[in-house]
């Protein structure tokens, strides 16, 4: 008989959630990034304490991820002399004629909507070590964009 028409045991527990993917890159974080990780661990520990059996696996998975990120974090302070684009700097640039400001931060701290860009991103790779006045080209969306570095300063957060 084909298994296609056999009723499955609906009392079987759902499979555990898959673990969250962890980047192979070193876990560089700003001081603010470490604070955010610690806040997330504390928040998830509180959720876990109040969770029912059904909600625990997902919270435990996320808590495992954030504990690992906390334990592997390499805190890097903004450079004293922020004369070139590097981790922990704020960069004012012109991208295809439009001004923009980005802050170069760790992967877990990144939020492109607020201008916080991961140090591993293609954009940061394209401008790393450039100084004010330097220009370069950057391919995005299948087209070449002009980038000009206007200023570089240490992230103040």
TrEMBL record:
Enumerate composition-biased segments (Basic and acidic residues).
Answer: 1-10
Taxonomic superkingdom: Bacteria
Q: Molecular function (GO) terms listed?
A: DNA binding; translation elongation factor activity
Looking at the record, the residues that make up the Transcription elongation factor GreA/GreB C-terminal domain are 82-153
Q: Which InterPro entries match?
A: GreA/GreB_C_sf, Tscrpt_elong_fac_GreA/B_C
Keywords for this protein? Elongation factor, Protein biosynthesis
State the protein's name: GreA/GreB family elongation factor
Q: Which Pfam families match?
A: GreA_GreB (PF01272)
Which intervals of the chain are annotated as region Disordered? 1-31
Gene3D superfamilies attached to this UniProt entry: Transcription elongation factor, GreA/GreB, C-terminal domain (3.10.50.30)
Q: What GO biological process terms does the UniProt entry carry, in alphabetical order?
A: regulation of DNA-templated transcription elongation
Q: Does the keyword RNA-binding apply?
A: no
